[in-house]
Structure formats: structure tokens, C-alpha cells
Amino acid sequence: MTVAEPRTEKGRATRNRVLDAATELVFEHGVAGTSLDDVRAAATVSKGQLYHYFADKEDLVHAVIDRTVQQVLGAQPALADLSSWAAIAGWCDDLVQLQVDRHAIGGCPIGSLAGELAETDEKARAELAGGFDRWEAPLREGLRQMQADGKLRRGADPTSLATATLAAIQGGLVLTQTRRDPQQLRIALDAAYAYLRSFAA
Amino acid sequence: MTVAEPRTEKGRATRNRVLDAATELVFEHGVAGTSLDDVRAAATVSKGQLYHYFADKEDLVHAVIDRTVQQVLGAQPALADLSSWAAIAGWCDDLVQLQVDRHAIGGCPIGSLAGELAETDEKARAELAGGFDRWEAPLREGLRQMQADGKLRRGADPTSLATATLAAIQGGLVLTQTRRDPQQLRIALDAAYAYLRSFAA
DNA sequence: CACAGACTGGACCTACCGGTCCAAAAGGAG
DNA sequence: CTCCTTTTGGACCGGTAGGTCCAGTCTGTG
């Protein structure tokens, strides 16, 4: 039998339990470092159930990617409106604060998955690229809005600016994680913000 | 018996063959995705030799990290002198060109290793952090030189600027790898360069 | 209350992985 | 030539990983 959608409330709860456990374990130990037996134990679920809801590990990982993207975006309520300098600055502050709280552990969940899967699982790569798109879009739209409002210069390119900012986030997180120092993200984001600001109208 | 330094020319050649093969395989498939048997086969070497020169997989991985850092720095001859705007711009161009040549595959070898090992192997994390230090230092020194030469404003902080630039590289590479588009690095580096330039005296 | 379909538990299988061990070959120094 | 160290080949081992299978238990519906 192949994969099965849960058809009862209980089934959905089980599937969710598995996905929650898998998402957290994968964030903590990576895909390769997380065995299905670990997931099974953490979700207090039997092997049979795992394979009832997911075709194989790859299938589970794809579901984990999806949930991870949702979590990362969900953890940034500020994404809802990035159409003012204050909003953008506040959003950056939140990102840094999150790393301080986490003691600079873990890096970016999406970025980490990308590093681990991009070369081995083309579908995963595409899904993660989609995650970055959904992350970048709100900033791009916010900048566009600011352009319309006359806060951002006409000549500025919201698309490139948003990409450069996302790159600063990712790079800042790589350095933060490797050096175990949240200030690395602070430095990267301060630079990114100042760069954006240089296009202020 | 524990690990052994090669004492003959032949032994050194064997150890190098193993390390070369391991470094390449790890770059292509990650640490978890590279089995010692893969390394053994690629280096045309027997199991006994592997454990003659390396205590265990972790030991081999540490050696791979060392070699990887050397390779990454070695691939950037421009690091030797980054004390002019032209030199910095040329260095950035080279980095982008490298990604174009590689078809945006692989990302940053150091960053990838960091993502995979930072949370599981503290010693590896420290070694990789050291790699970033050695990468960042030449730019910092170049900027300092430019400051002394009156090309960079007095108020600028070479340390932060170098960190922000390295973050742009890393982030640009993450996006490049995930989106399979070398232009992502181009955008990140153009932004980083413009930011540096905003501190020109 | 019956029964079909959804769900659950866990024994079991095979492949592969990191790691051990040891005997044989190579090769330089006396 | 001899002897000792270095180097080499590969059989072997225990653990664990992903994955299969199926019998048994729920559960909602007619």
C-alpha cells in the first residue's frame, strides 16, 4: 500500500504528531542525523503508522520541508507589513533577537535543509527555493509600496534589494551559527539595512 | 594501534590520495552522504590503509575540513591584496565567475560543512570558524590599509565591514545553490560592494 | 450490531556502515 | 641476505538504518 491521507480525527492527530516530531528532530540533528526510529520514538508511534502516512523517508522529509517553511515564515509576523523603514528595522531586530534567544544555535532551518539536500534531492531543492521565494516576496512588495509612497527612490530595484537582504540574513545566520555569536547576524543586517536606506528618497 | 604519520614517500602519497578523494566526495555528497567505503574505492585503497592513517571517520573529517579551507582560500589568489577598490571589485567578480563555471552547484564548501557539522561536532565547528577567520582577515587588513591610505573613511570599521561582506558571500552562495542561479551571488556581492563603497573617503 | 475501512503494534528482513584484526608484501639499513 | 618497520589487502563483525508485512484493534455508518 502506498501513502494514505488521514481520514479520521485520530489519524490526522497521529500524522501531525509524527510531522511535529520529525520537524524538530531534523532541525536539531539534520536529515541524515535523524533516523525514522528516532522519529517513531519521539512521536510515540509505531513503525507501521509511519509508513501508513508517509511513503518513505524522502516523502517524510518533503513534508518536513513544507512545515519548516511555514514555521519560519510564521515566526516572522512582521512580514505582514514591511512598507516602512521602521517596520523593516523592527523586523531585523526581531530576527537578531531570535538568535540571541536560541544562543546562536541551529542557524536558518531553511538554509540548513538547503545545504544538506540541494545536491541530492532535486524536488527538495525546488521546494526550498520556493520557501525562499515566499520569504523574499513580502519585503519586495513592501519596498514596492514604499516606492509608490515616495519613500524609496524610483531608480531602486525592489527585487534585487530584497534578494540582497535575504542573502544578508542567510549569510549572517551561517556566521552566527558557526561562530556561535548572534552579533554576526546583527552586523550583516545592519549593513543590509544601511544599504536599503541608501536608496531612501 | 592509533593513527600513524606516513614515514615514507609512498605512505604520504597514499594518505594524500585518501584525503583528496574524501575531500571531493564530501564536497559532492556531504559528510553523512560519504561512506568510508566510497572513499576507499575512490582512492583505490584498502580498509586497512584508511585506518592506518586516520583514527576514525571523525578524524578523517577533521583533515577534510583543513584541506577544504586551504582549497577555498587557495582558489582566491586575489586575497593576497585587497587594498584597493579595483582589487575588491575584481575579487568579487572572480567569486561570481567561479559559481558560473560550477553551474551554481555545491555552494560554499566551508559553509556547507558548517551547516552539517556545527551542531554535532564542536571541534569541527571551531575549525570551520577558524576557516572563516582566515577568509575574513585579508579583507579586513586590506580595508585597514585603505584607511591608512586615505581611501576609506576614518569612521569606518574594517572588522564589521569584512564580516558583513563575508556574510554577503555566504548568503549569496546559499541562494545561488538553492535557486541554481549564480546571479544570486552577483546581486549579494554588488550590494556588499556598494555598501563598502559608501564608506569611501 | 455488523462489517468495511482506517488505524496500530511490533516482529522481521536485508543492506550497509563504521570499525577491528591480522597476515602478507615492500623496502630501506646494516 | 637479513631483519625490522612501514605499508597493504581484505575477511570479518556487531550495530543500526530503512523498509516490509501482517495480524489485531478501533470506529463510524447503514
Question: Which key features would you list for this structure?
Answer:
homodimer, 201 residues, 71% helix, elongated, DNA-binding
Describe this structure in words.
Two copies of one chain form a homodimer. Chain A is mostly helical and 201 residues long. Chain A starts with 8 loop residues before the first helix and ends with a helix. The first copy, chain A, is elongated. In chain A, helix 1 crosses helix 4 and helix 5 runs antiparallel to helix 9. Chain A contains nine helices and no strands. At the A-B interface, helix 6, helix 7, helix 8 and helix 9 of A face helix 6, helix 7, helix 8 and helix 9 of B. Chain A binds a DNA duplex (30 and 30 nucleotides) through residues 4, 6-8, 10-11, 14, 35-37, 45-52, 56-57.
Please sum up the structure shown.
The structure is a homodimer of 201-residue chains. Chain A has 201 residues and is mostly helical.
Strand content of chain A: under 5%
Rg from Cα of chain A? 19 Å
What structural category do the secondary elements of chain A indicate? Answer: mainly alpha
Task: Using a beta-carbon cutoff below 8 angstroms, give the protein chain pair with the largest interface and the number of residues from each chain.
Answer: A-B, 46 and 46 residues
Number of distinct beta strands of chain A: 0
Average pLDDT figure of chain A: 96
Low-confidence stretches of chain A: none
Q: From the structure provided, what is the oligomeric state, counting identical versus distinct chains?
A: homodimer
**Percent in helix of chain A:** over 70%
Write the H/E string of chain A, N to C. HHHHHHHHH
Shape of chain A: elongated
- Number of H/I helices of chain A: 9
How is the main sheet of chain A built? none
N→C terminal distance of chain A: 61 Å
